[in-house]
Amino acid sequence: MINRSSTRQQVMKPKNKKPKSKYKKLVNSLKKGGAKNPKALAAHIGREKYGKKKFQELALKGKKSKKRKA
Q1: pLDDT tens readout for residues 36-57
Q2: What angle, rounded to 10 degrees, do the helices at 38-50 and 22-32 form?
Q3: b or e along 31-64 (b: 16 or more beta carbons within 10 Å of the residue's beta carbon)?
Q4: Where are the domains of the chain?
Q5: For the whole model, what pTM was predicted?
Q6: What's the rounded Cα separation, in Å, for the pair 55 and 66?
Q7: Do residues 30 and 38 make contact, with C-beta atoms less than 8 angstroms apart?
Q8: Cα 50 to chain center, whole Å?
Q9: Rounded to an integer, what distance in angstroms lies between the CA atom of residue 41 and that of residue 47?
Q10: For 6-42, how does the pLDDT look when each residue is reduced to its tens digit (9 = 90+)?
């Protein structure tokens, strides 16, 4: 049996948003930190962490998944 409080909670729940990628989260945090070019800084950090080859593979995966969604 559904009572009033449970129906209110169902209506009040926020819609599920798509989870942000790690790259986007990093860009947003760098932007809040006052970086002049947060995307370039995030790319630099990614290349340091993963290396050039691995970072390019991850970027390619991101572009492919973006095309499929559009």
Answers
A1: 999 999 999 999 999 999 999 9
A2: 130
A3: eeeeeeebeebbbeebeeeeeeeebeeeeeeeee
A4: 21-69
A5: 0.61
A6: 17
A7: yes
A8: 18
A9: 10
A10: 555 555 556 656 556 888 899 999 999 999 999 999 9
